[in-house]
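anyone seen this seq b4? input:
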Amino acid sequence: MVSTVDIILIVVAIVIAIIVIVIIAIFNNLISKRNRVQNASAQIDVQLKRRYDLIPNLIDSVKGYMKYEKGVLTQITSLRTSIISGSMEDKAKANNQLTQAFKSIFAVAENYPDLKASQNFMNLQEQLEDTEDKIAFVRTSYNDYVLDFNNAIQEFPGNMIAPAFGFKVAAFFQAPEGETAPVKVNFDDVNEPQKPTAQPSVPSAQTAPKSVTQKPPATSKQPQNQPKKPKQPGK
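predicted toks r here
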């Protein structure tokens, strides 16, 4: 016969086996969700790098019209580190600054019809728009995966297991608060035709106000100190 002790041991072994199976299932589920987040993050990196690589060609196409392209290129080049190896927060910030810089370039390009009609410029613009659409798509997927993953490690029973295996909350891909202000680009050197400054109008001789006081009109009265005529005798 099976003793009570044996029954207890069997029950304990079954409970331990169930716990181990549950832990393995939760662990594998967290691994799967984290891999989805990492894959979506890699897709964002690909599109950000593609967008960044289009910048030199864009600057080269507009440098004949604008003098500030070197400053913009230097400013954008400094974002490469954030795009390539930065955190997701850094990448989101750099992407936002790239967007604002592109808006500045295209806004100035509106003043040059021949530049807008250039085939090279139009192709670059189409490629940038296509890249921005892809970034928006993969960003949405990434944020969905991040939400799913974060819920899994913060809800029970995941919150009991995730810390033990080093699972941490993932960051969303979004512009940090306070960092969405437009990037300041110096347009002082843009080769735009200067508008003539308004010169102060000089009044003409006919319309100019007379500053000299006019003399009063001459009166018919004789001066009071003029000597009177002598009376004739007999009158």
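Residues 205 and 211 are 12 Å apart (CA to CA). Helices lie at 4-53, 55-62, 69-77, 80-85, 88-109, 113-116, 119-154, 158-161. kinda curious what u guys think
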